[in-house]
């Protein structure tokens, strides 16, 4: 293998009773790569993300992070190994300040900062996501995109080896979207390894090196964004038989 | 330490020193009231250490308090009193750890119900053991420990609890608990071992309640399971902590003093309706001052500072 595999998913399956949400999924992501995980609603993308981050236990198969099996470990253990994530529905610590929300990501996880260095890093991270002037604001004063930025800053605080962005660009208006895309692009230029779950096609085209397409829990295509978006089965999954 | 911390530290020391003078005043009423207030100050403050940040409402205080009392009651003929206080603390810590391991995966109302049931469960076990062993239903604790000594013991325990609380608040553990109280999903994905953090605090809180029970045993001289494992005690601890404000370390004490003075009046005036009165107090606190006195004080002090 040329590049080192950052994450390797092998036959990952998750069933909820009789419903199989993720079925025999296998894919790899190289270090410094941005992988798009796409597919129609209900195709199992978020469940796949939850399996990687440990929010859900895998039913069968396994997942490795830099050669180390992480499936079966708890979310907190996986986070300490260097997986950080944002959530489909933004999750804020409402009774805490913006600064504390960001600090939360850098104390117990992959990095264990405290005191002055923690605060310095958190301020730096807020400046990076464009929130430098809201350090001491309460969460209730923030707009939706600002909350998303805070959540991203929190995830980055742990200096993750793998970053999971679950529909991080969803719900943004066109000008906010451009800011968001630029921000993720800056992370990519830093050399971060990222998996994005996204519906916004523009974002997928400009951000992703490679895409994995899911439908009804299965992987139906894999390749560059241009390849997969031209794939007949992918078009059928999104638009129905008539368009294929 | 920052300047405010030094100021608060000095204020705390002065208040405790003043409180320590109460037994010298030779007034039976105020000494007895002081012991009650000191008891609930320690219980509520330690309760809030766990329940304040995590929002897990525990009604297990009575269970731990009862364990402390009974440990002293059972062992007083066999071991010196001071050894028994230590033994009680160890038993309390072990029970808290076991209960924590078993229940902290429960959340919300399930946790509340379990902790409420715990006191009753332990009481039933104690009663069953006593009846099968053929002993009498109560135990005598006869010592030469007087009320002023009990009061001073409680004050010292109170100082220790404040110190522990202050230390936790500024530690990673305290930060972890605040994150857990806000959003447990974020907490686990930030790498926090939520079960361990909650169990540590539950053990601290349970151990303190057990020690309080052990310290108060000599005051009662005759211990019965229905008194030692009173659910009323657990409820009063919750009410006073909420009345004062469980978010601040000094919150519960601000709630305990007025509540106990009112409560003394209420129980004396309506001796047969105490449970009803407790319910009314609970509703009033929850509806009228949801953030407690601490919340009110901070709100108004912010406004005052905003104007000047």
Task: Produce a short descriptive summary.
The complex is a heterodimer of chains A (244) and B (308). Chain A has 244 residues and is an alpha/beta fold. In chain A, 35% of the residues lie in helices and 25% in strands.
Number of helices of chain A: 9
The major pleated sheet of chain B works out as: 2 strands, antiparallel
| Series of secondary-structure elements of chain B, N-terminal to C-terminal | HHHHHEHHHHEHHHHH
Q: Which regions of chain A contain 5 or more consecutive residues with pLDDT less than 50?
A: none
Enumerate the strands of the largest sheet of chain A in spatial order, edge to edge or round the barrel: 6-7-8-3-9-10
Largest sheet of chain A: 6 strands, mixed
Find the CATH superfamily of the largest domain in chain A.
P-loop containing nucleotide triphosphate hydrolases
Class of the largest domain in chain A in CATH? Alpha Beta
Number of strands of chain B: 2
Overall mean confidence score, pLDDT of chain B: 89
Distance between the termini of chain B: 27 Å
- Biggest interface pair, counts: A-B, 28 and 18 residues
């Amino acid at each position: 293998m040329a590049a080192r595999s950052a994450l390797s998913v092998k036959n990952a399956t998750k069933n909820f009773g009789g419903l199989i949400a993720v079925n025999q999924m296998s894919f790899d992501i190289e270090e410094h790569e941005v992988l798009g995980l796409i597919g129609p609603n209900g195709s199992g993308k978020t469940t796949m993300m939850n399996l990687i981050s440990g929010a859900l236990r895998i039913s069968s198969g396994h997942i490795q992070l830099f050669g180390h099996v992480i499936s079966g470990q708890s979310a907190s253990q996986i986070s300490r190994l260097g997986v950080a994530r944002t959530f489909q529905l933004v999750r804020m610590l409402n009774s805490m300040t913006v600064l504390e929300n960001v600090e939360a990501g850098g104390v117990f996880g992959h990095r264990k900062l405290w005191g002055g260095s923690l605060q310095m890093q958190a301020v730096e991270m807020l400046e990076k996501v464009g929130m430098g002037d809201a350090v001491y604001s309460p969460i209730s004063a923030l707009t939706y995109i600002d909350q998303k930025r805070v959540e991203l800053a929190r995830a980055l605080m742990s200096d993750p080896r793998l970053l999971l962005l679950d529909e991080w660009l969803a719900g943004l208006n066109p000008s906010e979207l451009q800011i968001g895309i630029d921000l993720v692009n800056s992370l990519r230029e830093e050399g971060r390894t990222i998996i994005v779950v996204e519906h916004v096609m523009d974002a997928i085209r400009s951000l992703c090196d490679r895409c994995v397409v899911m439908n009804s829990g299965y992987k139906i295509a894999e390749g560059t964004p241009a390849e997969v978006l031209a794939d007949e089965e992918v078009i059928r999954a999104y638009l129905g038989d008539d368009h294929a | 330490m920052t300047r405010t911390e030094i100021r608060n530290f000095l204020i705390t020391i002065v208040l405790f020193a003043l409180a320590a003078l109460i037994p010298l005043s030779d007034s039976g009423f105020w000494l007895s009231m002081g012991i009650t207030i000191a008891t609930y100050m320690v219980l509520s403050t330690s309760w809030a250490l766990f329940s304040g940040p995590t929002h897990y409402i525990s009604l297990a205080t009575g269970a731990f308090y009862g364990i402390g009392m009974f440990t002293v009651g059972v062992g007083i003929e066999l071991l010196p009193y001071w050894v028994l206080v230590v033994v009680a603390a160890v038993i309390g810590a072990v029970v808290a750890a076991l209960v924590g391991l078993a229940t902290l995966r429960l959340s919300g109302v399930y946790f509340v119900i379990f902790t409420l049931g715990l006191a009753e469960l332990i009481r039933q076990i104690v009663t069953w053991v006593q009846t099968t062993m053929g002993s009498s239903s109560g135990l005598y604790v006869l010592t030469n420990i007087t009320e002023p000594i009990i009061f001073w013991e409680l004050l010292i325990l109170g100082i220790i609890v404040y110190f522990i609380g202050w230390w936790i608040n500024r530690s990673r553990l305290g930060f972890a608990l605040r994150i857990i109280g806000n959003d447990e999903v974020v907490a686990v994905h930030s790498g926090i071992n939520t079960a361990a953090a909650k169990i540590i605090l539950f053990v601290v809180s349970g151990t303190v309640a057990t020690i309080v029970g052990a310290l108060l045993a000599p005051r009662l001289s005759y211990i019965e399971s229905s008194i030692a494992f009173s659910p009323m005690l657990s409820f009063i601890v919750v009410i006073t902590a909420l009345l004062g404000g469980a978010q601040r370390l000094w919150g519960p004490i601000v709630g305990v003093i007025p509540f106990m003075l009112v409560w003394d009046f209420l129980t004396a005036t309506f001796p047969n309706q105490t449970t009803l009165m407790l319910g009314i107090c609970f509703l009033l606190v929850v509806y009228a001052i949801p953030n407690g006195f601490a919340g009110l004080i901070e709100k108004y002090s912010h406004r005052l500072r905003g104007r000047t």
